[in-house]
Amino acid sequence: MPAILTAKILSYPQYGGYYHIDKSYLVKLFPHLGNAEAFKTFIVEIRNDQRKLLKRFKPFEEIILKNSSFSSLRTLLRIDNEIADKLNLGNGYEITLIFVAYFSKVTHEWKDLLPMEIKFLDTDSQRVFEYISNVEVDFFLLSLYQPLLRDVLSVLWDANVRLFEGDVEGARTSLRNALDLLLKNIVSRIESKEESKEFREYLTDLIKRLRKFVEYGGPHPGTAPRTNTEMVFSMTLEMLKHLTKMLEDGTIMLREHEEIEASR
Questions:
Q1: Which one of 25, 36, 93, 100 has the fewest CB atoms closer than 10 angstroms to its CB?
Q2: Cβ proximity of 159 and 210 under 8 Å
Q3: Its pTM surpasses 0.90
Q4: What dotted CATH number matches 3-125?
């Protein structure tokens, strides 16, 4: 499960001035992570030393955190200077992170924390996620654990941002592009079990019908039909969630493009 931690960023001049965060809460819940060499994380937000919000990341930004290189600081994770410079961090700042994977010292490979569930390690992290929409969490989990859908999700995220900013026509364009990508890169490759062999055909028809809701009108004076656009967005996101579940449980598979060409 992704683990969410809000931690204070502290600098230790006697140890090269690197910024560090404490991983004790994480190791307390997952003792085997005490020997992990590094962690793959995503930044949710950063606050200054007065706890004023400086930035909430949309989408969340990935960074790698490594164990401190100093033996006396083994309970701490080091933030490399280039990351600190890029994020303009300061001593006493707070950072909220989603831990999604760790690098095992035993197997020398990255291992995911258990997917599709979120575990809060402290009350501050729970507070932060009160301001994060369910849609954003869905996007994050889908893109994290189903990389095949990332291109579609990226365009769909743009539609979400445009809707939030009031650019309905732009959102409709992004939705059309997302649905086109879904048809071309995913649905065309679906291979389903015998009892659901018509699934791809029905899904193709559904997506084409959904697309019609964001086709009509085009650029024109006046207000675009926002309600229909929001409906198509929500239905598309739900469709991606169900496709992810079907891929995970083996109900459907995706053929390689070479296999499709060979079968023609």
A1: 25
A2: no
A3: no
A4: 2.40.30.100
